[in-house]
Design a protein that fits this description.
By secondary structure, the protein is of the alpha/beta class. It contains ten helices and eleven strands.
């Protein structure tokens, strides 16, 4: 056996994502690079680790056993690094998040200074949809999640981070009145939706139902970035979180369409399972957040209040 730590890490991510493409995205590697490492790793075993049926990859029973061992080996390798740093008097460990896709515009600002102050802390942040976020939370695979819609089926504790605002937006090339429209505008414009499982979509659908908006669904896309580009291209309109469209509003690619009753307002919450025993790193981060939250909002998100 001559496998590397990197090959173990890549194979474990493939088994978790059940997709080479998704594993490559999560690891910030190219798909060919991940495929090459998987082949090299497989050559060290006489029994298949994976099977391809159609265009989907499946992990064999043996592959699942190898993945479990790989996870244990990686955990021990990380532990050795942390022990070395702990002997130097540093706070050490892994801080693990699973956040909804739009939260990627927020969470980095709340952890950046904490990581600079604690060089022995390693950040692991999975950016995915709300369904996957809550699954990771329920399986106790992470320390914290960041969501704008609290789960109804899980018992969680939370810290409110900041306000969330959603506006009706369109391409900057379209012409709209400055005077607010009433809800009849939705009879004439095609709306672009996020996929099922998205927190943004859930917030949008609740608002549409409560206000009996006469919406015309145009299409459904699987990421905030995809929706944003479709709206910029003039393919339709969407109800989008302000936090993810700052640059596009400022450079004129997108515009907020004034509509009575908007923006839709909610709150970004950092959540964790009720009764969870936090690691020293997670506890230190919570203490840091309680102390510095308002300063971070003022320094990083002051622009938010102008809309």
């Amino acid at each position: 056996m001559n496998y590397t730590i990197n090959q173990l890490r890549i194979f474990l991510k493939i088994t978790q994502a059940e997709s080479i493409t998704k594993a490559a995205e999560a690891l910030h590697l190219s798909q060919p690079a991940v495929s090459i490492q998987l082949k090299k790793f497989q050559k060290q075993f006489e029994i298949p680790l994976t099977e391809i049926v159609g265009r989907k990859i499946f992990i064999t029973d043996f592959g699942k056993e190898v993945a479990e061992s790989a996870e244990n080996i990686l955990d021990q390798a990380y532990a050795l690094n942390y022990k070395t740093q702990a002997h130097k008097g540093q706070l050490t460990g892994r801080l693990k998040f699973s956040i909804v896709s739009t939260a990627k515009y927020i969470m980095p600002y709340f952890v950046s200074d904490f990581l600079r102050q604690n060089s022995g802390v390693e950040l692991v942040m999975d950016v995915t949809n709300k369904v996957s976020v809550l699954q990771s939370l329920e399986r106790n695979e992470i320390d914290f999640s960041l969501v704008s819609v609290l789960p109804e089926t899980l018992r969680v504790d939370k810290i409110e981070l900041m306000q969330n605002k959603l506006f009706l937006v369109g391409s900057g090339n379209d012409k709209f009145n400055k005077k607010p429209y009433d809800k009849s505008i939705f009879e004439t414009i095609p709306l672009i939706y996020r996929e099922y499982g998205s927190g943004t979509r859930q917030t949008m659908e609740i608002y549409v139902k409560q206000n009996k908006l006469p919406v015309h669904k145009k299409m459904e896309l699987t990421s905030n970035e995809a929706v944003k580009q479709a709206v910029i291209a003039g393919l339709g309109y969407s109800i989008m979180p302000l936090i993810g469209i700052k640059n596009e509003l400022q450079n004129g690619e997108l515009q907020i369409i004034p509509v009575k009753g908007f923006p839709i307002e909610s709150v970004w919450n950092l959540i964790w399972m009720k009764g969870k025993n936090h690691s020293p790193v997670a506890s230190a981060f919570l203490n840091y957040l309680k102390k510095e939250k308002e300063n971070i909002i003022k320094q990083r998100f002051e622009w938010f209040e102008h809309y």
